[in-house]
Design a protein that fits this description.
CATH topology of the largest domain: Heat Shock Protein 90
Largest sheet: 6 strands, mixed
Order of helices and strands: HEEHHHEEEHHEHEEHEEEHHEE
Radius of gyration: 28 Å
Structural class: alpha+beta
CATH superfamily of the largest domain: Histidine kinase-like ATPase, C-terminal domain
CATH architecture of the largest domain: 2-Layer Sandwich
Strand content: 15-25%
Number of domains: 3
Shape: extended
Bound molecules: adenosine-5'-diphosphate
Number of helices: 10
CATH class of the largest domain: Alpha Beta
């Protein structure tokens, strides 16, 4: 019986009718402890639902399922526990790790609830203004114009959100496939900055990028690299404050220990108020914003850095964020070069 148990691809133990653990495979010893054999099952598995399932099967036969919630190396874990009577005297207990499955389900639930919330806010506001417009009608043309302006902003916000969601979806689908086209990053930066010039002009910012960089070739997706630069520069403009420089600096091609190969680093540097270090690890999470109101005021969706992270991952690169409160932030993208 012990040999059979060792062949199981999941943790499994056998409990005798005297309620003591008779056999345990290696995976079960790793999960429940090295000295569980010859111990009463209650002292091994303290969860009431699991204990109840084992007790039921040992006394009355048949099979039972239970969920076991535990903590492994300080991380919450959940197992589907199956208890089967295998002969008159024994119960086989198997432990199927359902943690990843549960986490994925939770992430999906959180995502749907976040998206619904993000869309509902502008939609509710638009419905409110539409109702008001219907009641005031033509009577107050000034208010009418003002409400139409607000509704246009809200519609733009929903449009940005849907576009970012579509981008994120595309980028996540592509992530496994490394790009194969040889592109010049310097050229892409130049073209992208041209399209961003009017945005910078509006807030009286200057985007600084040395025009004399030599071409820097890498295997990349032109549109996606353009999106990385756009998102980082737009953030630097949004959070860097008006009338400040946003600098783009490109390093020489050199060995990059984080990539374990040659690469280049593009830094986007702003002089804004910076980010408290405790928030930095969470910035690339979907919908995470340090300051909800400020992000919304400047037209943020909370998805920009998440999109950047996925694109950089697809290019087998690394995104690093450094910031000093009161002095500004530097977002660095390290990319492998050919
Ligand atoms: P958003 O659409 O809200 O800008 P992002 O994913 O691009 O979403 O950024 C997430 C959050 O990170 C922002 O809401 C902001 O709080 C913070 N952030 C991003 N870039 C900067 C920056 N250059 N300076 C300060 N904070 C920043």
């Amino acid at each position: 019986m012990n040999d059979l148990l060792q062949a199981f691809p999941i943790a499994a133990i056998i409990i005798g009718q005297d309620d003591f653990v008779v056999h345990a495979n290696e995976l079960a010893l790793g999960l429940l402890g090295r000295s569980i054999v010859d111990k009463h099952y209650v002292s091994v598995l303290r969860h009431p639902d699991v204990a109840e399932a084992i007790d039921h099967v040992l006394r009355q036969g048949g099979k039972r399922q239970a969920r076991w919630f535990t903590t492994l190396a300080s991380v919450d874990a959940v197992f589907n526990v199956s208890v089967h009577r295998i002969n008159t005297a024994h119960a086989l207990v198997t432990f199927e790790d359902a943690t990843d499955f549960e986490n994925t389900r939770q992430m999906r639930r959180d995502f749907v609830s976040n998206v619904s919330h993000e869309l509902k806010t502008p939609l509710t506001s638009m419905l409110g203004f539409l109702e008001t417009l219907q009641t005031i009608g033509q009577k107050d043309p000034v208010a009418q114009q003002r409400f139409l302006g607000i509704m246009t902003n809200e519609a733009h916000r929903m449009n940005r959100l849907v576009n970012d969601l579509l981008s994120l979806n595309r980028v996540e689908n592509d992530e496994r496939f490394q790009p194969t086209q040889k592109v010049d990053l310097v050229q892409i930066i130049r073209e992208t900055l041209e399209t961003l010039a009017p945005v910078a002009k509006k807030t009286d910012n200057t985007i600084v990028f040395d025009p004399n960089y030599a071409p820097a070739y890498l295997l990349g997706d032109r549109d996606q690299l353009c999106q990385v630069i756009t998102n980082l520069v737009e953030n630097a403009l949004k959070y860097g404050g008006p009338a400040k420089d946003v600098c783009l600096v490109l390093s020489q091609k050199q060995y990059q220990p984080v990539l374990r190969q040659d690469g280049i680093v593009l830094e986007v540097i702003d002089q804004g108020r910076g980010i408290d270090p405790q928030f930095i690890p969470r910035l690339t999470e979907r919908f995470y914003r340090v300051d909800d109101h400020r992000s919304r005021d400047v037209g943020g969706t909370g998805l920009g850095l998440s999109i950047v992270k996925h694109i950089v991952n697809r290019h087998r690169g690394r995104l690093t964020i450094k910031s000093t409160l009161g002095q500004g932030s530097t977002f660095s993208v390290c990319l492998p070069v050919v």
